[in-house]
Amino acid sequence: MKTLTGFTLIELLIVIATLALVTTFSIASYSDYQNAQKVETSASEVVTLFQTAKSRALSQVKPTVCNGRVLESYRVTITPGAQNYVLSVICSGVVTQLETKKLSQDVLFTTGSTTTITFSLLTGAATSGTINITGYGKTKTITVNTVGNIGVN
After folding, report:
1. The pLDDT of residue 124
2. How far is Cα 1 from Cα 101, in angstroms, rounded to an integer?
3. Cα 125 to Cα 89: distance, rounded to the nearest angstrom
4. What is the pLDDT of residue 113?
5. How far is CA 59 from the centre of its chain?
6. Pairing between strand 108-109 and 84-91?
7. pLDDT score of 130
8. What is the pLDDT of residue 61?
9. Is residue 27 within 8 Å of residue 125, measured between CB atoms?
10. What are the pLDDT tens digits along the chain (153 aa)?
11. DSSP letters of the chain?
12. Bridge-based pairing state of the strands 84-91 and 71-78
């Protein structure tokens, strides 16, 4: 009598069910990771704009929109409950928008966040404040102190 070797139908079904289960958990984990990265990336982009404003204030870069006016400071303004944030320059008391940006989809500035951070010329000193970014159940906090140091938690 010959002995047949191979897998039974039950064994194949168990392997397929196990693979389906592992795949389901992997997809869910990847989705959570991807959403956390969207919040992280948004926070990094906001910090980059703060650093740009501080750098321009320290180096006294005078944009052409200040033609004939005195450069005073650079400012970043956020819109709580929304996604918009703006880099502006202040020349002789006139505020001019230089750059407007937007957070990633489904990521927002939380209500209660500081709405304006201004960086002074030469020193880079700033109006202190805390900005919270939230999305997908994750929150990032950006803090700017009066010396102009910027941190993310």
Report:
1. 87
2. 77
3. 15
4. 85
5. 25
6. unpaired
7. 95
8. 87
9. no
10. 677 788 889 999 999 999 999 988 888 889 889 999 999 999 999 999 999 999 999 999 899 999 999 999 999 999 999 999 999 999 999 999 999 999 999 999 998 888 999 999 988 899 999 999 999 999 999 999 999 999 999
11. -PPP-S--HHHHHHHHHHHHHHHHHHHHHHHHHHHHHHHHHHHHHHHHHHHHHHHHHHHT---GGGTTS-EEEEEEEE-TTSSEEEEEEEETTEEEEEEEEEPPTT-EEPTTS--EEEEETTT--B--EEEEEEETTEEEEEEE-TT--EEE-
12. antiparallel
Determine the Cα–Cα distance for residues 8 and 26; give it in Å rounded to an integer: 27
| Burial bucket for residue 11 (CB in 10 Å: 0-12, 13-18, 19+) | exposed
Q: Model-level pTM?
A: 0.83
94: its two tokens = 């006139």
Backbone torsions φ then ψ of 63, nearest 5 degrees: -70, 160
Spatial neighbors of 118 by CB under 8 A, at least 6 apart, are 73, 74, 75, 90, 126, 127
Which pair of tokens denotes residue 79?
Answer: 């819109």
